[in-house]
Amino acid sequence: MSEFLLDFEKPVVELEKKILSLKVSAEHSKIDFSSEIAELEEKKEKLKKEIYGSLTSWQKVMLARHPSRPYTLDYIKIICENFVELHGDRAFGDDPALVCGLATIDNKPVVVIGHQKGRTIQENIDRNFGMAHPEGYRKALRLMKMAEKFNRPIITFIDTAGAYPGIAAEERGQAEAIARNLREMSYLEVPVVSIIIGEGGSGGAIGIGVANKVAMLENAYYSVISPEGCAAILFRDASKSKEATEALKITAKDLLKNGVIDEIIKEPVGGAHVDAVETAMNIKRFINKSLTSLSKMTKQQLADDRYLKFRKIGVFEEETAKQKKALKNKKTTTKSRRK
Q1: 199 and 159 co-located in one domain
Q2: Which range of residues forms the domain containing residue 85?
Q3: CA atoms within 13 A on the CB side of 32
Q4: What is the H or E stretch that residue 186 is in?
Q5: Which residues of the chain are modeled with pLDDT < 70?
Q6: d(CA 253, CA 258)
C-alpha cells in the first residue's frame, strides 16, 4: 500500500497494520497467531472488494490522480521491448510532458506516445505535471507521420489534466497544434490504439486520442473538462466537484455505455498502483487484441473507421415539421383539459 492514502483506503490500511503487528508478535513471541491472521486477511479482502466495488465517480477521479499510479514510462518498461525515445518537434524544442518513441511489443514494431507526469516535485516541474505544450503535440504528430511512413501501428497512453493553458503555450499555437493533430490523426493509414491510464482531460487528451480502438483503465476518467472546472463554471463553486463529476458521466462505465470508448481494462483491487505489472499485462492484452483485428483492415478502411467512430459520438435526432406540429397540438390539448 502506498504511503499516500485516500480517505476510503484508510480502513483497509488499518487492517493491514493489525495483520503486520500480529505477524511481528508471532515471530518474536513464538506464539501461533495463524488463525487470527487468516481471519483478518479474509476480512481485509472482503472489505477491499466492498470498498473498491462501490466507488463513487469522485472516488474514481481520486484514484485516477493517485500519485503512486503507474505512468506512461512505467507501462512502456513493462510492455515494450527496445524502446528508443525520440525528441523535438523540429520547430521549437522538446516537451518532456509527452514521451514519444519507437519500440516493439512481442516483436511487433510500434510507435509509442504518451503523457508523462513526475514522481517528485522537481520531476513534475520538468514534466510540467503531464500538461503538454504545442511542441509536445507537434512532436507527437511528427512521430505519427513517421509511423505512417514505415507502416507501424501507433499506441498512445493518455494521462493529463489537460493541455498547458499558459501564455507561452497560447503564443506558440496550442489550439492550432491540437486541432491539427485531430485532423491529421483522422486520416492516418495505420492502426491507432489509445488507452486512458489516468486522467483524460479535455483537448490535451484528445490531441493524441483519435484512435480506432479506445480503452480506459477501470479507475481512469475521460472528460471535456475537469470536475473542478465544470463546478466553477456551472455551479459558480469549485467545491461542488463531486456533484459535477456525477453530472459529467466521465467514468469508464459511463463512457462505455455511451459509446465513447470500446473497452474497460481491469485493474487490481485497490487500483493500478497496487500491482503495476498486472495492470500492464491487461493493457498489453488489449493492445495485442486490437492490433490483430485492425491488421485485417486496408489503409482506407482504417481511416474511415476512425472517422466514423468519432462522428457517431453524441448522436442526436432532429424533429420533423410534422413531429413539431403534433407536439404543439398535444401541449394545447393538455392546457385545455387543465382549464
Answers
A1: yes
A2: 62-311
A3: 2
A4: helix 174-187
A5: 1-3, 315-316, 319-320, 324, 330-339
A6: 9
